[in-house]
Amino acid sequence: MRRTFVVIAWLLLSASSAEGQTVCGYVAANPKPPVSKGLYPVSIAQVDGKKVDGRDSARVKLLVGPHSIGVVERVADDRRGRARLEELGINQKSAALKLIDIDVQADGSYLLGAQLIAEPGQGGSDDYWEPVVWRKLVDSCR
Hints:
The protein is an alpha+beta fold. The chain has one domain (22-138). Helix content is 20%, strand content 40%. The chain contains two helices and nine strands; from the N terminus they run αββββββαβββ. The protein has helices at 2-19, 79-88, and strands spanning 24-29, 39-40, 42-47, 50-51, 59-63, 65-73, 97-104, 108-116, 129-138. The strands form two sheets. Strands 1, 2, 5, 8 and 9 form a five-stranded mixed beta sheet that branches. It has a four-stranded antiparallel beta sheet with strand order 4-3-6-7, with no helix packed on it. The longest helix has 18 residues, at 2-19. The two termini are 39 Å apart.
């Protein structure tokens, strides 16, 4: 009988502590990624195949676990970005959506950016950049 009580008490305590755990994190599109890292801004356009509302596209709260984030580069929004595109001979027409997979951890905040590929291939008009997580921060999620 006493053993049953101990097990029940342990289960109740475990359930209440699990309830208080953080089960979310963030992905964010910083409008000014660091110049020193050669990064450019992106916009978050979709999460797990669902369109992100424009007002929410700078920072999105997500449940812990794997997510597919669709981003659009905004290299030409930046003066140095426009110059770099010209150096690479890239005539930017329309920004294509690219996916990055992120395993969101509890209280994690993932800053996203666009990184130009030094020598773009012949694969297509949007092969000159790739989405990257350039910084992971601890940010309390509630």
